[in-house]
Design goal:
Number of helices: 5
Mean pLDDT: 79
Helix content: 40-55%
CATH topology of one domain: Alpha-Beta Plaits
Shape: flat
Strand content: 15-25%
CATH superfamily of one domain: Sporulation related repeat
Structural class: alpha+beta
Distance between the termini: 93 Å
Order of helices and strands: HHEHEEHEH
């Protein structure tokens, strides 16, 4: 048992000293400095031929102005353009069918009295004719919301003005009508 422990100790010490020995790294040659990397990539690079230079007639030589030549499109390019136009037309048709989007409205009135809701609606019409009012009724409450704002920043601009007329006004996220939101500046 003592022999095995001694041999194991000798092997461990030898591995330790050989592992910690200083090694020199060559600084030149193929396995040298990492800055000496050199590889020829000319085989994999694409080759381009330069376009021929156009010569323009000099002014005052009396030469007639040459017609501009428009290069004809290849059949493949025309196919790609047709396909792209079809995709864009389909996307435009799909976008036209979308009527509502997430946005913001300002809730001006909440209460149980229809006359008060109608009076608030009239006041909004008089002061902000560009904003569309939306009066909804869910028993027993009337709610009057105004505007179709795509961005919160636009809604906040109107909110500060409406807040002076209606102190209980609240800015809320809502589903808005896209057609009317485009007309708000």
């Amino acid at each position: 048992m003592k022999r095995i422990v001694n041999r194991l100790l000798v092997v461990t010490v030898a591995v330790y000293f050989f592992g910690c020995a200083a090694r020199s790294v060559p600084t030149s040659g193929k396995t040298g400095n990492y800055n000496d990397y050199n590889e020829d990539l000319s085989d994999v690079r694409p080759a381009y031929t330069p376009a021929p230079a156009k010569t323009e007639p000099k002014l005052g030589t009396g030469a007639p102005e040459s017609k501009k030549i428009i290069p004809s499109m290849s059949a493949e390019a025309q196919h790609v353009n047709r396909r792209l136009e079809e995709v864009m037309d389909a996307s435009a048709a799909k976008n036209k069918s979308i009527r509502y989007a997430p946005g913001y409205r300002i809730q001006v009135y909440t209460g149980n009295e229809r006359q008060s809701a109608e009076a608030a609606k009239l006041l909004v019409y008089q002061n902000f004719p560009e904003l569309n009012p939306y009066l909804s009724y869910k028993q027993p409450t009337y709610k009057l919301k105004v505007g179709d704002f795509m961005r919160k920043m636009d809604a906040e601009r109107y909110y500060s003005q409406i807040k002076s007329l209606f102190p209980t006004a609240v800015l809320q996220p809502d589903k808005i009508d896209i057609r009317y939101s485009m007309s708000i500046n």
